[in-house]
Design brief:
The complex is a heterodimer of chains A (235) and B (127).
Chain A: H1 3-13, E1 17-22, H2 30-34, E2 39-44, E3 53-57, E4 63-68, H3 69-77, H4 89-94, H5 96-100, E5 102-106, H6 108-125, E6 129-133, H7 137-151, E7 157-163, E8 173-176, H8 179-182, E9 184-189, E10 199-207, E11 210-216, H9 219-234
Parallel strand pairs in A: 1-2, 6-7, 7-8
Antiparallel strand pairs in A: 1-3, 3-4, 5-11, 6-9, 9-10, 10-11
Chain B: H1 10-17, H2 22-29, H3 32-42, E1 48-50, H4 51-61, E2 67-68, H5 70-90, E3 94-97, E4 102-105, H6 111-123
Antiparallel strand pairs in B: 1-4, 3-4
The chains are: A alpha/beta (235), B mainly alpha (127).
Chain lengths: 235, 127
């Protein structure tokens, strides 16, 4: 079993449909949604309508929520992209699609930014376990200082993976000789037991600087990944 | 959830009354759900819609704070299904099939849009 590949497939099956109801042909969210690989349909509104909004439906066509474009732009433009915090639970419900959507094409820079968000979450909590897949030893070496600092942070412990053989004494790096680890960039944080803090990024390399994958705040998905990675790390 | 009805002058009322039951219909379209359903269906690219599509459109369009939860949207759908669409169907303005849950504009007289115009002007000015 390759839980990393399964998780990406599963996220792809949960693909959402977003319908933009708008009085004109502009696409105010093209940039924001392009990276998220959601299907965007359009429905017209009369040109005098003082609003434009998105309707989000799940794979089973279930209505999940609707949000005004203005409110969404405000959210996307803010530094705090964590609606589950600070009592915005209603908004969080609508924004599930942003978290659970499959990224069709990400480059290293974007993955690094997403990874930093998860690492910062672990840093703030100062507890729990952080599992990170670096693909190669050299990639780990480039981040070794960051991970040393994370490992020294409170009760937080880190488990790092890269493809290779043998062991590295005195290193928290675990070398694993299997594709399941070497082909994937992942950062999985178990939240230190707190469901609200669990989050994960999993991406499979498709080209020299092209990845496909997803990020999620779904506790069950994170738990599955943690179970798999913990077993892999100990084996 | 009804708005205050606009008042028509006597001449306009008489002219509209020739093709529509103005007083009764005014009560129906004083409900923003009924009104926005008509605005949506009036569009050339639309004309017909599933009940679900119409509920999405009306719920999103009339949302006060820009966010619609599944519960909010269910309320709009129920109101369309049980109140607004049967009434508009009764007036011969839409054809509502409650079995397959489809709605079509039923070639209403131009006077309908004249009756709606004062509402529309107000609905266009939402902040």
């Amino acid at each position: 079993m390759n839980a990393l590949a399964d998780a990406i497939d599963s996220a792809r099956r949960r693909r959402k449909t977003v319908t933009l109801y708008s009085p004109d042909d502009s696409d105010p969210l093209a940039e924001a949604l392009a990276v998220r690989n959601v299907d965007v349909e359009r429905q017209p509104l009369p040109e005098w309508a003082p609003t434009e909004f998105l309707v989000v439906r799940g794979l089973d066509e279930e209505f999940e929520g609707s949000i005004g474009v203005a409110a969404l732009q405000q959210f996307l433009g803010s530094d705090d992209r964590q609606p589950w915090a600070s009592g915005q639970s209603e908004v969080a419900a609508v924004f599930d699609f942003l978290d659970d959507a499959v990224f069709s094409s990400l480059d290293r820079r974007q993955l690094l930014a997403a990874s930093r968000e998860i690492e910062e979450r672990a840093w703030r909590a100062a507890a729990g376990r952080l599992y990170t897949g670096f693909q190669t030893e050299s990639a780990f070496a480039a981040q070794a200082e960051v991970y040393d600092r994370l490992a020294d942070r409170g009760e937080l412990s880190v488990r790092c993976f890269a493809r290779g053989e043998g062991t590295r004494q005195g290193s928290r790096l675990r070398l694993v000789d299997r594709e399941a680890v070497g082909d994937y960039w992942f950062v999985v944080y178990d939240g230190g037991g707190d469901d609200d803090r669990k989050c994960a990024l999993v991406a499979e390399q498709r080209g020299s600087d092209e990845y496909t994958g997803f990020w999620t705040y779904d506790p069950e998905t994170v738990d599955d990944l943690v179970t798999y990675l913990a077993a892999t790390y100990e084996s | 959830m009804t708005d205050e009805q606009p008042v028509f002058d006597a001449d306009t009322f008489t002219r509209l009354e020739a093709s529509l039951p103005v007083a009764a219909l005014s009560r129906t379209v004083s409900d923003p759900v009924a009104r926005h359903a008509l605005y949506f269906l009036r569009q050339e690219e639309v004309r017909t819609a599933s009940l679900d599509r119409l509920a999405d459109a009306v719920a999103g369009w009339t949302a006060d704070d820009g966010v619609v939860t599944p519960a909010d949207r269910d309320r709009v759908r129920l109101r369309l299904y049980h109140v607004c669409l049967p009434a508009l169907d009764e007036f011969g303005i839409v054809a509502f099939d409650s079995g397959d849950e489809s709605v079509a504009l039923d070639d209403p007289p131009e006077e309908l849009w004249q009756l709606l115009e004062p509402f529309r002007r107000r609905d266009a000015c939402d902040e």
